[in-house]
Amino acid sequence: MNPTIVQIEALTKVFEGKDRVVAVDRIDLELHEGEIFGFLGPNGAGKTTTIGMATTRILPTSGRIVINGIDVVKNPAEARQLIGVVPQFNTLDRSLTLFENLYFHCRYFAMSHSEAKTRSLELLEQFHLGERQKAYPAQLSGGLGQRLQIARAIAHRPRVLFLDEPSAGLDPQSRLAMWSIVEQLHKEGITVLLTTHYMEEADTLSDRLAIIDHGRVLALGSPAKLKSIFGVRTVYDITLKSLEGVEAAAQWLLTKPGVESAEPYEHGIRMTADNTDGLLPLIVEATTAQRLIDIKMQVANLESVFIKLTGRDLRD
Question: Which CATH number among 3.40.50.300, 3.30.70.270, 1.20.1090.10, 2.40.50.100 corresponds to the domain 4-228?
Answer without folding.
Answer: 3.40.50.300
